[in-house]
Amino acid sequence: xxxxxxxxxxxxxxxxxxxxxxxxxxxxxxxxxxxxxxxxxxxxxxxxxxxxxxxxxxxxxxxxxxxxxxxxxxxxxxxxxxxxxxxxxxxxxxxxxxxxxxxxxxxxxxxxxxxxxxxxxxxxxxxxxxxxxxxxxxxxxxxxxxxxxxxxxx
Length: 154
What we know:
The structure is a single chain. By secondary structure, this protein is an all-alpha fold. It folds into 3 domains: 1-29; 31-114, no CATH class; 116-154, no CATH class. The protein is built from 7 helices and 2 strands, in the order αααβααβαα. A two-stranded antiparallel sheet has the order 1-2. Helix 6 (119-127) crosses helix 7 (129-140). The longest helix has 21 residues, at 39-59.
């Protein structure tokens, strides 16, 4: 808290930080510009769609029906396509991340949370040592989750 007070306690520092944020967003949102007969449509396409892709889908991992903070395979790939020209690094990162969730059988993990280092501990505590090792082999051995249930890949 003291660091924040020291950094933003002066009005001039606050104004400088605010202007920096505004400039960064203007730069991000101005890469691709669309001009239509409708000012409202221009505002949505030139500002809100890109902002939503960044703030809600990529950074917040949240959306209309994705409020868990998980990564989503299809939805976030679709949303990150809006960023291909404005931020190709973020778009590439999301594509590579999603590709890591596709199995050799062709199916994908549709939703996932980032790996938690405590996962092996919880699996061991809840499932016991043999099941824990078997589960970890399946998860990190990239075995299709469909085979866990005896189902073919769909």
